[in-house]
Structures
1.
Amino acid sequence: MGWVSAIAVFFVIWWTVLFAILPIGLRTQDDAGEVTLGTEASAPRGPHMLRVAVLTTLVSLAIFAVLFVLTHVLGYGFDDIPRLTPDFE
């Protein structure tokens, strides 16, 4: 895998992990008991995007490291995944 492909794979992993981590630790205005007039009670109480971005980057780096070890160090690829469908040839 070249460096452009590696960046593209990391980008896809990062965005997928972002949407999985985004609700973790989210406190709504209703949870805090401080609903601002004109907003929904389920709106976030305060910004937490820096923490989410850092956590997303760390988890994505760990997943990418596992992928790198499996593909480059151990030599596994898509051809090594067993077929789950029967061969009708």
Note: Residues 3-80 form one domain.
2.
Amino acid sequence: MLLTPPPERRPHVVFLNWRDRANPEGGGSEIYVERVAAGLVARGFRVTVVSARFPGSAAEEVLASGVRLVRRGTHATVYARAALLLLARRLGRADVVVDVQNGMPFLPRLYRRRPVVVLVHHVHREQWSVVLGPVLARVGWWIESRVAPRVNRRVPYVAVSDITRDELVDLGVDRQRIAVVHNGTSEPLAVPVERSPQPRLVVLSRLVPHKRIEIALETLARLRPELPELRLTIAGRGWWEQPLRDAARELGVDDAVDFAGFVDEPTKHRLLASSWVSLVPSVKEGWGLAVVEAAIHATPSVAFHGAGGVAESIVDGESGLLAAHDDIDEFVALTRSLLVDDELRARLADGARRHSARFTWAGAVQGFETVLRAALPAEAGSAGEQTPLEDGEPRQHEAARVANDEISESRRR
């Protein structure tokens, strides 16, 4: 009698991320998780994303990609709710948990015996004081800079840029445990969009204080006397929208600013393709997804040198321009040079398109899968357990080193 072998169990990956893509405050970090998660499902994984509730959200849903979303708690309570879900095994058996550390970590390593991978977009050193008062900012930074590296001292990390990896090393994370898996970029529109005949600036961003969109408004105000047809479109949503509208009115440029709100993918790409320059005045970016999304349409960007990953998503002088750290005068001057110098703008536009071609979502998924495969036990769910805060180094702690070797080899090919 022939026996049918049991079907191979698909490894289950659980992402802990306080927001998901549909959240009104969602941004590039959430796009990264959504695209990687969808790619992992297509490659044979089961994927669950745990995040906070928001008005109008469902407690659970399954996306068309096959990714399962589980929403519990608020921005403040989702960390505890996620721990309860895992401890009670309400999510099913999780073979790997990915702690998406957006400043505040979930720290599943404290209570899990299965493999953990930590995903970091950027270190929030500068942002704590922008978002919170001085006392809470110090507490948040202490947890991010002291507690999390200690708890995760044997855990593989994924950083989205070399700069983020360097920041983690500064916090005491071993460099060999950190794999760099860049963001990908979307495919260009099937039908090309013509560039606007009048000068246009665009900001694609969440509307929150640390994105410093006020600098884009000031740039518009300073350049408008010389370029009266100049307009700025701000695409995105967030709780800081009204202060930005007030700032535009105070600067006398509200008639030249379009607040587009949330835009769907086709609209976003048409907007990026028709604009002359993309502005990214943020305090800090882990990578700068908006930079590369603009670049696929040959739209160069202007940002600040000290703003994290934008120094990688922009090749200064080749695919865009970087102003000195917090030098608003230079930021304005660089923006002006791109608007008035057609030859410079054309050269950087070509460089932006070529630079963006290096980054694909297929490559990002492959890199992330490499980390997960290295972290998984030989047979997912049956071996390789970790004891919380133990000093040994089991197989999955080699994950980042294996991943970096394979990613480097694929880039050489």
Note: The two ends are 48 Å apart (CA to CA).
3.
Amino acid sequence: MNFFSELFRGFDPELIAQLFLSTSLGLLVGIEREHLGKAAGKRTFALVALGATLYTLLSQFGFQGHQGPTSFDPSRIVSQIVVGMGFLGAGLIVFDENRVKGLTTAAALWTVAAIGATVGLRFYALAIVATLITFFILAGLRRLPRNQQ
């Protein structure tokens, strides 16, 4: 095989569309966070969604030649996305004067990673609905009064 045929091996327009869809969904959530001046904004959220989709796609298609009794389990990569996002989110959470800050942003990043993985698994409608629900929780529920106990 020459370089150019190897370069475009596995090129699939649907895979490229998946990357753009997940990035767009992450961007939508990130715009809301950035509008509020939170630590993680549109670039962070877009990259988390993109990365989760890319890892999910790699887990499905990158190891297809490893079939057999000791084959690679693609679900293990998705489970590691959850763990990695927990680590990233923990870095956002801080305690300041008896208040916890960054918890909602960390939870939103964790959710956006799940949305990215969902796109990678081709559950497009589910990912879009989850994004809309996430956006509603972040933007819509903020308007409700807090319980000040």
Note: Residues 15-61+73-139 form one domain.
4.
Amino acid sequence: MAPTSTLDLIQTPPLEFSSHTGKPILYILDQFPPPAIKYARILFHVILPHDEEFRHWRENATALLIRNSYLTAEDVSSCPNLIAVGKHGVGIEKIDQDACAARGIKILNTPGANARAVAELVLTLTMTVARQIRSITIRQTLAPVPKESCSGLTLYRKKIGILGMGHIGRTVAEMFRGAFDADIIAYDPFMPAIAWPHIIHSRAKTYEEVIFASDVLTVHMPLTTETRDLISYNELRQMKPTAILINAARGGIVNECDLEKALAEGLIWGAGLDCHEEEPPTKERYGKLWGNLNVVSTPHIGAATADTQLTCAKMAMDNIIKYLATLN
């Protein structure tokens, strides 16, 4: 039978096994906690960056595990035997997906593994901004703060707008419903109409509808050409003056210069940012934004809990070993 696509013409390289352990070899490009490495050694013959064999990873690797490293088109072209790339976390924008697809290299990420930890941080950022915790804490280091001088917003039965209805968005919706009996409005053009049957919510036809209606707007979309600068000055000025904006997805979805301007003009109440265009964020770039005490900023720590890091690592390793088993 004639091949039906270019992938049918791709010859999968033979798997690389250790002559000592008989296990498939896994090259780990980034640092992982010791429990994760211990688990990896159960499944694989592991080669770490400090190992002597690691310097030959490009020539020899059939399977890689990455966390924060980039894998460029040049990297892919220099790995003639590469078959699978395990990615710790859901985001794969640091991997050249076109180069991998052209070679039939499987990218195996871990959707859902970090959903609860990220959703908990979204809740944390929202409550911190709503109650002006940063402002009150800083003031308190300088002088006693009379409680009469403090103010904030309550979240009970407020409208929570969610852009992106994947694992994290769904978990955020569940938490806000449970904690605050919140009114959920969600938008995702790629999810079926029957999504989230267990969550009381309304489904918006456009993201503008969510922006206009929300008391809290939280973003859970990937960064793409279409979503870059999705929330800019025009969108921010349509939000309620008491609205809170949360970005725990990717830097670049919210236009940071426009957000700084909108906050300075009092167009919205405040913002909680776990994602920035520059990561880790620096005072040199974000000092003016951080000068607004209704801004809470964290350096992309949504999944940075011990439990979540280990869960993500194990899932990525399991994904690799299961995929390699299908090739035997």
Note: The two ends are 22 Å apart (CA to CA).
